[in-house]
Amino acid sequence: MEFKFDVSDIFPSSIVEVNPSLIPPGFAGDRRGLSNVVAKVAEVVNAMGDASAAAQGLSNPITSAERLRKADQTVYLLVDRDAKGGKGVVTGMLKTGKKSLYVFDRDGQHHHVSPPCVLDFYVHESRQRTGLGKQLFEHMLKKENVEPIKLAIDRPSDKLLSFMDKHYGLQTPMRQMNNYVVFDGFFPELQSDVNGVAMENEIKQPANGLQTYTGPLGRYGAPRPPCSMGQIIHNQTSIQSNESAGPQIASQ
């Protein structure tokens, strides 16, 4: 995406991180210069947010300078500094941030989590299918020190889900009631004893901001039936186990 000003003058590298201050990395100048550069960064963020919303068919943008100022989030911008005779263009945008969420796993158990989230992701139509999206995503993963499987994604498009499948092998997404999506491996695994048997007094290890949970003891530790809400979310049908259903009457 082109702008009237020189993009390469305010963004010193091919991928830049913009925080709520809207001050680009490496800025050095007086107060007047700061006000000018912040206004330009805001224009870029707004334009990329509008383009992303249009590409997704949304009536309102998810990303804007005003929203970014009010949240603890990061916008990663992909910049081609050599384009347009050295003035540069912005070719992609990825927004991340942590959110407090309630999510269900495949067993219907709910978890209160605060994971890193992908909130918006867009690559300009003229630069798609060139590897730039993967480059931008990989930069974010390295910077935030997170694995793809540990991310929650807000309202992912089919194109983004295909991207996660193609590059990271993440399939069969678990869609949540809050419109987020997580994948198998997002939730922590139960600890086991030396014989490989899950311990009765189990502690689920924190991951992605998952709250520590201590399993019930004694008679309260008996298996519980699947959560109907979780079954609804994951399109599962409640099936009663023959082992726990008591005596069965054989048909004649």
UniProtKB/TrEMBL annotation:
InterPro entries: Acyl_CoA_acyltransferase, Atat, GNAT_ATAT, TOPRIM_DnaG/twinkle. It catalyses: L-lysyl-[alpha-tubulin] + acetyl-CoA = N(6)-acetyl-L-lysyl-[alpha-tubulin] + CoA + H(+). One of its GO terms (molecular function) is tubulin N-acetyltransferase activity. Gene3D superfamilies: 3.40.630.30. The record marks 56 as: Crucial for catalytic activity. Acetyl-CoA binds at residues 121-134, 157-166. Its EC number is 2.3.1.108. It comes from the Eukaryota. Keywords: Acyltransferase, Transferase. GO terms for cellular component: microtubule. Residues 1-187 form the N-acetyltransferase domain. GO terms for biological process: neuron development; regulation of microtubule cytoskeleton organization. PANTHER family: ALPHA-TUBULIN N-ACETYLTRANSFERASE 1 (PTHR12327:SF0). Belongs to the acetyltransferase ATAT1 family. Specifically acetylates 'Lys-40' in alpha-tubulin on the lumenal side of microtubules. Promotes microtubule destabilization and accelerates microtubule dynamics; this activity may be independent of acetylation activity. Acetylates alpha-tubulin with a slow enzymatic rate, due to a catalytic site that is not optimized for acetyl transfer. Enters the microtubule through each end and diffuses quickly throughout the lumen of microtubules. This is Alpha-tubulin N-acetyltransferase. It comes from Pyrocoelia pectoralis.
